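User: Hi! I'm working on a homework problem where we have to compare a predicted structure to a textbook description. Could you give me the structure for the chain below?
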Amino acid sequence: MKYIVILGDGMADYPVDFFDGKTILEVAKKPTIDYMCAHGELGMVKTVQDGMKPGSDVANLSVMGYDTRECYSGRSPLEAASIGVEMKDDDVTFRTNLVTLSDEENYEDKTMLDYSAGEITTEEANELINAVAEELNTDKIKFYAGISYRHLCVWNGGSTNVDMTPPHDISDKKIADHLPKGDGADVFLEMMKKSEKILKEHPVNKARAAAGKNPATSIWPWGEGTKPQLENFEKKFGVKGSVISAVDLIKGIAKCAGMNSIDVEGATGNCETNWDGKAQAALDAILDGSDFVYLHMEAPDEMGHQGAPEKKKFAVETIDAKVVKFLKDELEKRGIDYKMLIMPDHPTPISLKTHVSDPVPYVIYDSTKELDTGLSYTEENGKKTSLYIEKGYTLMNHFLDK
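Assistant: Happy to help. Predicted C-alpha cells:
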C-alpha cells in the first residue's frame, strides 16, 4: 500500500460574495476529488490547537502527525533548515518578507499594499536581499536569501520575547500598530527603515516599476523561532516518506523530520507553478520506493491572501485535473494499491485574506476498499458527517492505519 497526501494549502473557505454565497470548494469543478469523496471517508479535522496561531507551520506539522504543543519552536527555523542555514543553540531566526508598502514619507504612516511584492521572482528577490545583507549584516544579525519573497534573518544570541505581525495578516492596513514590539524592536524597526532606502534605488525595483509590477520597498521580519527538534518521520510511522513543495517552510519540515525533500523545476508556490512536474515527481517518488508522499501546493493559500476568488477556484480545479486525476490514473494503470488523503491545512478565506483556525474537511480514499457516501467534497458536507478529529495530529495515524 502506498500513501499520498494532497495538501491544498488554505483551500477551505467561507461563503464568497463573488460566487453568490458559495465557497470555493462548492463552485470549483473537481470531479476526481468529488469521486474520491463519494467513495471514501469524509470528515472534519482540527489542525490548529487552541491557543496557537493558524499558520501553515503549525497546521502542516499537525497534518504530518506532529503534536505542535510538544515540537513547535517557530516557523522560521524550519525555513532555515530548508535554506541550509545551520543554527546555533542560541540563534533566533525570523522569516523576512520583501513587501510593498505605500509611499508616505513617514515609515509609520505606511500601508501594507502587498505582502509578497507582487510575487517577486526568486532571481530578482535574491539580488535585493543580498543588497540588504551587504548593508545591514552585523556580527549578530545576518540575512539569507530564500525563495520568491520569503527570506531569512538570523539573530545570534537573540530573544523570542518579541511581537511580530505576519504581513499577510495586515493586507491593505496601516502598519503603525503592527510594527515590531519587545526585545530588539528598535533594532528591527531601524533595519526596516534602512531597507527602504536601500531598495528604493535598486535597478531591480526600477525595472519592476517600469513594467507595472509592485516593487519590493521594505523588509518585514516575523515568525521568530529557535532550533527545531522533530522526531524522524520514518521512525515515528514506519514508512519511508518524501515531500514535494515549492516553499521553504514545508521543505524545512521534511528535512527536520528526515524525509526526502524533492525539488521540482518551475515550482513556484502560486498559480503559475509546474503542476505537471509536481504530479510526476510524486509518481516517480512512489515508483522509486517511497511508501509515503506529501504533495503540498501553495497556490490556493496565496490566492486567498490576495482576495482573488477566481484564481483560487482555478487553483483547486487544477489540483483536481492535473494532480489528483493524474496520480489516480497512473497508479491504477500500474495496479498499485494506494490510499490518498486530500485536505487543506487551514482555511484562508477570501473575505479575510488571512488564515483562520476553523476545522477543515478531509477525504481519505482507499483504492482497495471503496465506500459509498455519495457526498461531494465541501465544507458543509464535511460538517454533515459524524466524523470529527479534534486532535489533528492523530489523523496521520488514522490514515496510515497505525
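For your comparison, note the following. The first helix runs from residue 24 to 27. Residues 65 and 236 are 9 Å apart (CA to CA). Good luck with the assignment!
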